[in-house]
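Model: You mentioned two targets. I'll fold them one after the other.
Researcher: Yes, keep them separate.
Model: Target one:
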Amino acid sequence: MILIVTSSLAQNNIFQPYDDFRTNSVDETVVSPDDNFVAFTLRVPRPFTDKQGTAYQELYIYDYSKKTVHPLLTGKVNINNISFTIDSKRISFGVMRNLL
């Protein structure tokens, strides 16, 4: 009896096809040369109200010492090719904006 109840509850948490359009994922990651930061892109699916196209790629940075994540460039952008300068003080990347 418990197995049946557990099974029916688990079915409510099944990943559905539409969930793919609500799921964010990390795509590209780069660790700074001084090992203090990680820059990463977050894949954010486009809302159905936007023009057709690929998911947006937002840029974030994780600070190891503070254990915090900071958004650097978000919204309707597509970030790629992220890298740190040798001194770890700057990040370079390619970007496409206003992907309407």
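Model: Target two:
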Amino acid sequence: MFLADDDKLLINYLSIELNNAGHTVIAVATSFKEALELIQNLTDVDVGLVDGNLSWFSTGGKEGKQIAAAFREKFPGKPLFSTSVVEQPWSDDPNLTTRNGYDRLVKRVTEA
């Protein structure tokens, strides 16, 4: 699993919880530059979890979209999810990018 979020406390927490739940977090990035470098150097990954608002205050969230594009190019067909609460047009499922979609996502996770 590849994680990218500029909130270091959140990414630390997510990494620990995902590992405790039996997932293997193989790469964690806390900046745009680090995320691109890790994507370039990874040979395989099962899933990506990217902050769609990475560096929001300095770039308006454009870096999240660029990371998503790099991930999709390097790992075509692999799932990529945005941890953003703001709509992201590059999300795997358009239902997950709407406020109503958030309720469906929560429901899906809790029913699993």
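Researcher: Noted. Anything on target two?
Model: Residues 8-20 form the longest helix (13 residues).
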